[in-house]
Design a protein that fits this description.
Blueprint lengths: L8 H18 L8 H15 L13 H12 L5 H8 L3 H4 L4 H8 L1 H10 L12 H13 L4 H15 L6 H21 L3 H15 L1 H13 L1 H21 L4 E7 L2 H11 L10 E7 L6 H15 L1 E2 L5 E2 L12 E6 L5 E8 H9 L1 H6 L8 H13 L6 H13 L2 E5 L5 E5 L4 H8 L1 H5 L1 E6 L2 E3 L11 E5 L16 H32 L6 H10 L5 H9 L5 H17 L9 H8 L7 E3 L4 E2 L3 E2 L11 E5 L5 E5 L5 H7 L4 E6 L7 E10 L4 H12 L4 E9 L2 E10 L2 H12 L4 E7 L2
Parallel strand pairs: 2-6, 14-16
Antiparallel strand pairs: 1-2, 3-5, 4-5, 5-6, 7-8, 9-10, 9-11, 12-13, 12-17, 15-16, 15-17, 18-20, 18-21, 19-20
Helix pairs in contact: 1-3, 2-4, 3-4, 3-9, 4-7, 6-7, 7-8, 7-9, 8-18, 8-19, 9-10, 9-11, 10-11, 10-27, 11-12, 12-14, 13-15, 22-24
């Protein structure tokens, strides 16, 4: 029996007004004369347009635009134009209102921002990801107005906060896209609070068990942590005030996602993550005294507690590319554990929390233009017309994520490059011509090859030769998007010349064999030599890889080719794959919306076993591949190729076994291996495929590949292995 949803319209009306008033309160600080009227006008338009729409939770749809506007005002610090755009961000897409209507009511600027926010509809090349194209469109508007991205982030944050009512496969797709694109974007724009929340929320859906486990652990120790922070902070507070500094000293917990990252990176259990929180010292200093005050506070902290000399990070003297300024040090606390201390002024803190928006506010006093440079880089990438959206995304992500290093030119000018940049990147950064003819470099007056990885503070001089041209393997040497796109377009140009040459040669050869030179025959030839395009055919002919005798061979087999015709990969849809592989004996995995039994293969990157949370991914040549939802590649696949992801869940199956790996660490003890193998083979009757063991000065580290039935079987096995004397940790690993 379906329960009828009873809606109290009067109560909803009151709630909408309450939320609207809260929004006005949040935007109070930025309101100018006449702004309130504009916001009211936008609110009325949104209310009217969305009046019959509801969200998945059953709430009125208007709650969403109000919440997005609230985030834009309160958490990002944006002004009236952005609040208006946030209120109207869905009307063009979801209702009858057009961009012309918006321009008439609110002006060109607002219409332009909303156009940037409205997803692109229309026909795409199906192999290119829709999300990637949307993302590119969003960035194109960044060239005009960065508010598009900030409102888009507010929109995404609210959607992530209210995703409980979505179907599971939608949650996975949206969470993957968030962790893959939006969190790095927030990071790059300096919005750390939003970045952390987006990462945590993504993890809540992508890896719910780990998320709940860490959240529970954090909660258990809350009181104990508060006491520790209080004791740690008191003496600092006292001395800072004695020194005449006005400061706010407090502790704040690290995000669940960053704790999980630390556990993975260092391969340690939760109990061994010491820096579960950071201590912040926020100084109230005049702009001209900022540096001196930060170092004063630093000396107070390091007099009280011993610092770790390797962990001092000074972003006060040279701020990060996104404008982040702060002094970080790690000190030994009173209970023998490391504590991270961050020292910054109120101005720096606002830039760290609100990033871009705060930048505008301090533009006059701050001479830092790192963000402007970054937008310039994005523009360069967007202006490369040949970039396929997905290549573009990967290049973009790489430049987005990276931390910077500072490199000096021979004359002492400073250039900023991403971490991992090479001498060749530096050459392209100076000028395309310099990059294309680069044969080596002098780093700090020492000769190095073009692939040399630069270190922070290196001084670099590029050596060129006009005989040099870009090579294919250069793409593996460079990391900046600028260098990549310039090398690609230069190689394309080079290839075109070779292909033109090959085309003439092929024409002559075909004439001598009395074969008509036409598109049809060229296609057949490409197909025969298994080449992706006729251009590749021309290139191979020019390079002498295809000769006259090869073409004669083609002539002999031509009859067969004619009857078969070139194959094209079948359309990448679930139905396409279903038709191809109907039948199949498999009985243990149900795939697709209607949960049918379809053939599949298990992905080698994450070795899923029954009981794991999984999804299917339609590949070009191997049918459906099954991945774990927390597979290292999952976020990228779901974010870029959402339309090729299908639901999959395990069915109760007959006793089949699946290969998985366990890493066992412990203290080496007599008979330890014997005890481990006994648990595996005798108690659990599990077959082992391989075992490799390494013992180093009393520490045992082993990897075992075993066959198990499902996750429950595996978890019980892990529990029993942990009982073996000497074993301190057992973790499952991906292949």
């Amino acid at each position: 029996m379906k329960t009828e949803l009873v809606i109290d319209l009067e109560a909803e009306k009151q709630e909408i007004l309450k939320r609207y008033r809260a929004l006005l309160r949040a935007s109070k600080s930025t309101l100018q004369k006449g702004d309130k009227k504009e916001i009211r006008k936008a609110f009325d338009m949104a209310l009217e347009s969305h009046k019959d729409m509801r969200r998945k939770s059953g709430e009125p749809y208007i709650y969403h635009p109000i919440a997005v506007a609230q985030i834009a005002a309160e958490e990002i610090g944006l002004g009236t134009t952005s609040i208006v755009c946030a209120l109207l961000h869905d009307v063009v897409e979801d209702t009858d209102i057009t961009l012309e209507d918006i321009e008439r009511e609110f002006g060109k600027k607002t219409a332009k921002i909303i156009d940037g926010l409205t997803k692109i509809s229309g026909v795409f090349d199906t192999n290119s990801s829709l999300q990637a194209e949307n993302f590119r469109k969003m960035l194109l508007t960044l060239a005009d107005d960065v508010r598009v991205i900030l409102i888009k982030l507010a929109d995404r944050l609210h959607n992530m906060r209210t995703m409980d009512f979505m179907p599971r496969h939608k949650q996975l797709k949206i969470a993957s896209e968030t962790i893959y694109l939006y969190a790095p974007l927030a990071h790059r724009l300096g919005l750390y609070a939003i970045k952390s929340e987006l990462e945590d929320l993504s993890m809540k859906y992508l890896d719910p068990d780990t998320y709940k486990f860490i959240a529970k652990k954090l909660n258990e120790k809350k009181a104990e942590r508060a006491l520790f922070i209080k004791k740690f902070v008191e003496p600092i507070d006292e001395i800072v005030h004695e020194q005449g500094l006005v400061a706010d000293v407090y502790g704040r917990p690290k995000s669940i996602h960053s704790i999980w990252n630390k556990m993975k990176k260092k391969n340690i259990p939760f109990e061994e993550v010491y820096d579960l929180f950071a201590i912040r010292i926020i100084l109230d200093s005049a702009y001209e005294n900022e540096k001196a005050d930060c170092w004063k506070a630093y000396s107070v902290v390091t007099d009280l507690y011993r610092p770790n000399p390797d962990r001092l990070r000074d972003w006060v003297s040279s701020p990060k590319g996104n404008g982040y300024e702060s002094l970080h040090t790690t000190v030994m606390g009173p209970r023998g554990q490391w504590v991270e201390v961050q020292i910054r002024t109120q101005r720096m803190n606002e830039i760290a929390e609100k990033g871009f928006a705060a930048h505008w506010k301090y533009k006059e006093s701050s001479n830092d233009n790192g963000l402007d440079q970054w937008i310039q880089k994005v523009r360069e990438m967007l202006s490369n017309p040949e970039a396929n959206a997905l290549d573009f995304l990967d290049d973009f992500k790489m430049n987005l994520f990276s931390d910077e290093i500072f490199i000096f030119t021979p004359k002492g000018a400073l250039l900023q490059l991403p971490l991992g940049a090479t001498a060749l990147d530096f050459a392209f950064e100076i000028h395309t011509g310099v990059g294309a003819t680069c044969i080596g470099a002098k780093v700090n007056h020492k000769l190095v090859p073009i692939s040399y990885k630069l270190q922070n503070g290196d001084q670099v001089e590029i050596i060129t030769s006009n005989k040099q041209t870009p090579k294919e393997d250069w793409l593996n040497i460079v990391v900046t998007a600028k260098a990549k796109s310039k090398i690609k377009s230069s190689l394309k140009e080079e290839k075109r010349k070779i292909a033109d040459n090959g085309k003439e040669i092929l024409e002559r050869k075909l004439k001598s064999l009395k074969i008509t030179y036409n598109t049809d025959n060229l296609q057949k030839l490409s197909y025969f030599f298994k080449l992706p395009s006729t251009q590749e055919l021309f290139v191979n002919v020019a390079l002498g890889k295809i000769e006259l005798r090869d073409i004669k061979e083609y002539l002999n087999s031509e009859k067969e080719v004619e009857t078969r015709g070139p194959e094209r990969p079948e359309n990448l849809t679930v139905d396409g794959v279903k038709n191809k592989i109907k039948g199949g004996e498999s009985d243990i995995l149900l795939i697709g919306e209607d949960m049918q039994r379809i053939d599949y293969t298990l992905a080698a990157c994450c070795n899923p076993i029954p009981g794991d949370d999984v999804f299917g991914f339609i590949t070009v040549s191997d049918g459906i591949k099954i991945h774990r939802t927390n597979c290292p590649n999952a976020a990228q696949l779901m974010a870029n190729y959402g339309y090729r992801v299908v639901k999959a869940k395990w069915n109760k199956q007959q006793e089949l076994t699946f290969l998985t790996g366990l890493r066992i660490v412990g203290i080496d003890d007599v008979g330890l291996i014997n005890n481990i193998t006994r648990v595996i083979s005798t108690d659990f009757k599990v077959n082992m495929r391989s075992i490799t063991v390494d013992t180093n000065e009393g520490i045992f580290d082993g990897s075992i590949m075993i066959f198990v039935n499902d996750t429950e079987h595996l978890e019980n096995l892990i529990k029993n292995l942990l009982k073996v004397r000497g074993v301190t940790g057992v973790t499952r690993f991906d292949a």
